[in-house]
Every structure is written in C-alpha cells, then in structure tokens.
Design brief:
Layout (H helix, E strand, L loop, with lengths): L1 E6 L4 E8 L2 E8 L1 E8 L6 E5 L2 E5 L3 E6 L4 E6 L1 E6 L2 E6 L2 E4 L4 E4 L7 H26 L19 E5 L4 E5 L5 E2 L5 E2 L2 H8 L6 E2 L5 E2 L16 H4 L18 E4 L18
Length: 269
C-alpha cells in the first residue's frame, strides 16, 4: 500500500487496526494529510474523523481538518459516510462533516502544512530510484520480484534508503505516480529508464566480448540521482525498513499513536 499519513502540529490520531486487509485509523485532533500513490485491490483503508467515516480506495490527496470538521479532496475521490448516509466527494470539493454539506474550495489556497507535505513527497520519490535499483541488484526480475537471501522485502512495500536517510516506496507495477506528480519506479522499470547494457566489444578473433550483465551509471541530473545510482551491479548493504502495516505513517510529533505533535512541522516521512 503506497500510502502516507502526515500529521501537523498539535494533532493526534489512533491506530484502530493495522492489517492490510482492514487498516483503520481514527483522526482525533488537528490537521492530517493523506497521500495515496497506490492502493492494492485487496487492501482497505478507513479513516474515522469525528462523525465521518471515510473509505479510501483510489490514488489521491486528502486533507482532514478535524477540529473544523472539514474534509478536502485535492485529487481523487472519497466515500464519506455521515449519520448513515454515504456521499462521494470528488476533486476540488470539501465536506463539512458536521452539516454533511459539500461545496467547492480553492485547491491553490494552501498553507505551510500543504507546502511541507509536498516537499516531503518530492524527497521520498527522489529516493525511490536508487532504492529500486538496489532491489533489482539483489536479484529482482520482471517475472519474479521476490527477495533473494532475505536481504530485501521486494516491491509493493517500503524500503529504507541509506543515501537519503529516508524510507521510500517501491511498487511492482509501472507508471505509479504520487498525487503531486512524482514518479515511483519499480525495480524492473528503473533499469529500463536509466540504465543500458554496455556496447559489445570485439576481440582479435572477431567475436564479442564484454560483460553484458552490468549496467552503466546514470549521468548527472538536476535531481541528484546519479550520485546514488552510478554504481554497477555490485552488492550494496542496507537495512530494510520494517513497516508492519505496509503504510508509511508520517508525523511531525514523532508519536505513533495519539500523542501531540511538537512545533516546527519539519519532521516525518
């Protein structure tokens, strides 16, 4: 499940269940932003915010201002149930869960929380490419994304990137984008996008030489991938991020359940 929960200052939440087939989180106070890049068919994500029960099934960007009873949909669509009545809330719409009224809002009218969430999303996506290559180097193939020697948890999961010092998402499929527009590469597709086998060389006998199993490093880019990705297929040692629910939960509070956030809003994933 490629989902991130970001929690603002003086905000709190409580994990109700952490199973992938039934993930439930209660948003207690403050402001929360949910970024969904990918969600598998057999995964269920439900959020409870005061009188509203929200089911997330699609890629999107959603903001919950719990104290004001406001639910905003920047991208995607939400199914919101209030007092037994269900309503679909689409992009550019917000619902007041206290009155069950739905109206338009200005998606460009953002604040510091929105801007911080966007920056964090960009950093996490930037770390994806080198982590996806690392999974590939451990033995991932187009037909078998399973881990080898238990050194990586494969794809459709989260992995710690030692170069960026952050956890990033590794999908299995192609064309996975965050609602901010950043791309997440699978182990197979990152090699197709940024690496090519070296050209064959001729020996004195006219035959071909060279090692067709290695890849050339990616050239320098403005986003700074090359420093981490210019390695060949040599083994790279790193720890694997253990995310029990498959969901990366980000909080400037540093609290995993219902504690209050510290000021600054500059921490989290």
């Amino acid at each position: 499940m490629g989902t991130i929960l970001r929690t603002g200052d003086n905000s709190s939440f409580k994990m109700l269940t952490n199973r992938l087939i039934d993930t439930r989180v209660e948003l207690l106070t403050g402001t929360h932003i949910v970024e969904v890049a990918e969600i598998q068919k057999d995964n269920n994500l439900t959020l409870v915010a005061k009188d509203a029960t929200v089911v997330i099934t699609k890629r999107g960007l959603y903001r919950f201002d719990v104290d004001q009873s406001l639910i905003k949909v920047f991208e995607g669509v939400l199914g919101v149930t209030v007092n037994g009545q269900s309503t679909l809330v689409g992009a550019g719409k917000m619902m007041n869960s206290a009155t069950a009224l739905v109206e338009k809002f200005d998606k460009e009218a953002t604040d510091a929380m929105d801007n911080w969430a966007r920056r964090r999303a960009g950093l996490i996506a930037m770390a994806n490419a080198s982590s996806a290559k690392q999974v590939h180097d451990y033995g991932c193939t187009p037909n078998n994304f399973a881990a080898v020697n238990n050194r990586t948890s494969g794809c459709n999961t989260w992995r710690y990137n030692p170069w960026y010092g952050i956890v990033t998402y590794i999908p299995c499929g192609a064309n996975i984008y965050s609602p901010y527009g950043y791309r997440y590469y699978s182990p197979y597709n990152v090699m197709r996008a940024y690496y090519v086998p070296p050209p064959p060389s001729y020996n004195n006998g006219g035959g071909f030489g060279g090692n067709s199993g290695s890849y050339a490093g990616m050239s320098q880019t403005s986003s700074g991938y090359s420093g981490a990705m210019a390695t060949s297929t040599s083994s790279v040692s790193s720890s694997t991020a253990a995310v029990s629910s498959g969901t990366s939960v980000s909080s400037s509070a540093g609290s995993a359940s219902s504690g209050q956030g510290a000021s600054g809003g500059g921490r989290g994933k």
